């Protein structure tokens, strides 16, 4: 007879409950439970639209900047749908990408060294891994240091991190000097040095030219990514944790990734095809429901009726990166490949940030005022952004500048939401078949769990 176990995962951003149904030593079914309700969408109702620029970065302490960018884009789209063209200076676009890239990198560094590598300490008691021990380990400490350094780039342009609100409709409110740009570039260079020496074991540009697992393992010196790959193979995590093999990315970022959806073939993304389903959520269209079938405060998200994974792996696949196309052929969307893609993105974003910083022209504008006061604007707007964990969508309805309805679809809702009548969520499907409790938890963490975004 199947056995049911429920555990609370605290080593995530927030808190998630994992309910597992076991049969013959393997997970037969999995329920990912987001137990806390926060209500930001309701808080925003009745507020002036520009207030969202201050409120929304508080949704998450790790990816709040992505919420700011999505909010800004939603308000700019509100103007555009009202027939008013918003001019955004190239300098502002560059700085938004630089700061968003910095936030994503800090997340990936902390996620890999503070959450992922310590999991392997539970699988094997090896002295070779002592440097990854939480708090005490040399590599753990060093990663914390460099993840803190990279967010100083956000503070240079945005004035603070977290909860930055410097991005506004029409651009950004900073006016960086040559010294600011030099300082930002110096910080990026220092993190590049750390990534080359510790993570990849080779120059970043050399790494970005790698097209296969064999090539990387041959060229890389002793590196943390290489250790990770070997440990995945040792514990059969190179083939575990497979989900639907469908990938979604909602926007482009020059030098970094391309938007699209991949289901066998890559196609264009259309926001109109996104739907939220509340069949198993406590939160419904009409308020709240606590009947016995419902088990999470998150909703299920579907694109054209199907569940899609959104993540750095999705960004790699929709960008048609040869390395990950080849990895998928051998391992599909497994734990190891999903994790590798997130680590890979550190290199790609560091390289991109250097290009973006060098492209800024201080003598040109950073902000152009919108053509009308927000109090004159009514209609709908959509803001699309790629956050650390995947695709983020903000949907806004306003009347004379006042928010009437605000809807947020986070990456964690895509990946960790509940099931619908036909499908499990991507993470629930990936966990099925796991042969131990720790592996089930590790597979869940491969989606970079954020409870506070899931239950925004």
TrEMBL record:
What cofactor does its activity depend on?
Ni(2+)
Give the chief site where it resides.
Answer: other
**Keyword Cell membrane set for record:** no
Task: Name the Pfam families for this protein.
Answer: NiFeSe_Hases (PF00374)
Instruction: Show the SUPFAM superfamilies listed in the entry.
Output: HydB/Nqo4-like
State if Manganese is listed as a keyword: no
Indicate the transmembrane segments per the record: none
Q: Which family does it belong to?
A: Belongs to the [NiFe]/[NiFeSe] hydrogenase large subunit family.
Q: What is this protein called?
A: Nickel-dependent hydrogenase large subunit
Per the UniProt record, the source organism is: Persephonella atlantica
The organism's taxonomic lineage, starting at the top: Bacteria, Pseudomonadati, Aquificota, Aquificia, Aquificales
């Amino acid at each position: 007879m199947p056995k049911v176990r429920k555990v609370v995962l605290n080593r995530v951003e927030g808190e998630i409950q994992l309910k597992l149904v076991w049969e013959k030593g393997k997970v037969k079914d999995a329920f990912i439970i987001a137990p806390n309700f926060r209500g930001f969408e309701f808080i925003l109702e009745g507020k002036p639209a520009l207030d969202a620029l201050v409120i929304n970065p508080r949704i998450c302490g790790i990816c709040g900047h992505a919420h700011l960018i999505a909010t800004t884009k939603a308000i700019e789209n509100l103007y555009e749908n009202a027939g008013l063209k918003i001019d955004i200076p190239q300098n502002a676009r560059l700085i938004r990408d630089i700061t968003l890239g910095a936030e994503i990198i800090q997340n990936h560094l902390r996620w890999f060294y503070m959450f992922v590598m310590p999991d392997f300490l539970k699988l094997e008691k090896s002295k070779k891994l002592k440097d990854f021990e939480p708090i005490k380990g040399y590599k753990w400490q060093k990663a914390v240091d460099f993840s803190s350094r990279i967010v100083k780039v956000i503070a240079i342009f945005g004035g603070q991190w977290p909860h930055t609100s410097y991005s506004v409709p029409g651009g950004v409110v900073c006016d960086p000097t040559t010294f600011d740009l030099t300082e930002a570039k110096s910080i990026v260079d220092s993190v590049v040095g750390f990534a080359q020496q510790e993570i990849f074991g080779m120059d970043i540009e050399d790494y970005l030219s790698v097209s296969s697992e064999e090539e990387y393992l041959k060229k890389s010196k002793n590196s943390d990514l290489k250790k990770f790959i070997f440990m995945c193979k040792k514990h059969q995590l190179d083939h575990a944790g497979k989900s639907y093999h469908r990938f979604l990315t909602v926007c482009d970022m020059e030098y970094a990734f391309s938007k699209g959806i991949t289901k066998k073939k890559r196609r264009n993304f259309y926001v109109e095809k996104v739907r939220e389903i509340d069949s198993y959520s406590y939160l419904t269209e009409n308020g709240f429901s606590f009947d016995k079938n419902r088990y999470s405060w998150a909703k299920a998200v579907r694109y054209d009726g199907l569940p899609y994974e959104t993540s750095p792996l999705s960004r790699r696949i929709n960008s048609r990166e040869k390395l990950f196309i080849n990895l998928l052929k051998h391992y599909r969307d497994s734990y190891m490949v999903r994790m590798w893609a997130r680590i890979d993105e550190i290199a790609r974003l560091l390289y991109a940030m250097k290009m973006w910083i060098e492209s800024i022209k201080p003598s040109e504008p950073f902000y152009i005022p919108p053509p009308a006061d927000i109090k004159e604007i009514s209609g709908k707007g959509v803001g699309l952004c790629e956050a650390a964990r995947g695709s983020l969508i903000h949907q806004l309805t306003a009347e004379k500048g006042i928010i009437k309805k605000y809807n947020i679809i986070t990456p964690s809702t895509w990946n960790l939401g509940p099931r619908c009548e036909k499908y499990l969520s991507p993470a629930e499907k990936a966990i099925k078949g796991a042969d131990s409790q720790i592996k089930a938890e590790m597979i869940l963490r491969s989606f970079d769990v954020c409870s506070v975004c899931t239950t925004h």
